[in-house]
Amino acid sequence: NDLLFYVITPVVIVQSFLNMEFNKETISSFLLAFVCMFTTLVVGIFIVIPFFRKDKDNSSIYKYAVSYGNMGYMALPLCQSLLGSEGVFYCSAGVVAFNILSFVHGIWLMKKGTENDEGFKIKTIVLNPGVLSVAVGLPLFISGLELPEIINGAVVHIANLNTPLAMIFLGTYIANSDLKAMFKQKQNYFVAFLKLLVLPVIMFAIFKLIGLTGTIITACMISASVPSATNTVMFAAKYGKDTGVASTVVAFCSLLSVLTIPVMIALSRV
Description:
13 helices; mainly alpha
């Protein structure tokens, strides 16, 4: 988890900037991707507001699970595998949006109903791997500076670890979950319905209305379609929520996403 979060994912993002040529079209596309993926997160936050009110103990877990998708361990590897550096370039905009909102709204949501008054600090928004890697990659992208071969070779090799290691991590996560408890929890089905079907379909309609096409709409749809973020469990643990509930809902959505993500990717290419 730490290796992916602190080393490999940031390197993948930096590499995506190195492989893109700076021009007006690419920079405007990156900004467009950021707006689209930020909007996806905001729509997820709003569609879940009326739900899960009866289950006060776990309401914040379910709402977080619908609002925030697995950008680092699912969206980035999928974009890297299917779309190459261009897809990762767009997806990295979503990683930045995710880090900004999850460290503001996400913390507020998880702290609701607890005695934890720690509050969020601005440095948690700025000093995190997703934002820092863009801060490194963006100047390289704008300047067109090429790294020495010895450094560039290391970047390529480390970035190549992302997809297999992320899939092993996710597979281990699912394998260690209680399958019986996962399928017995009724709320899991509704979370999966909202996260894997309702949100991606709403975003597909929005993306089509604004005229997105090609690689960028596929990258945005992948980001909108990925299952609940593993941060759901980490934040639940940090703020005194039920980690067992958080684990089962993340694993359940991850398992079902094997069926739904290919459909959403195919839809984006219609």
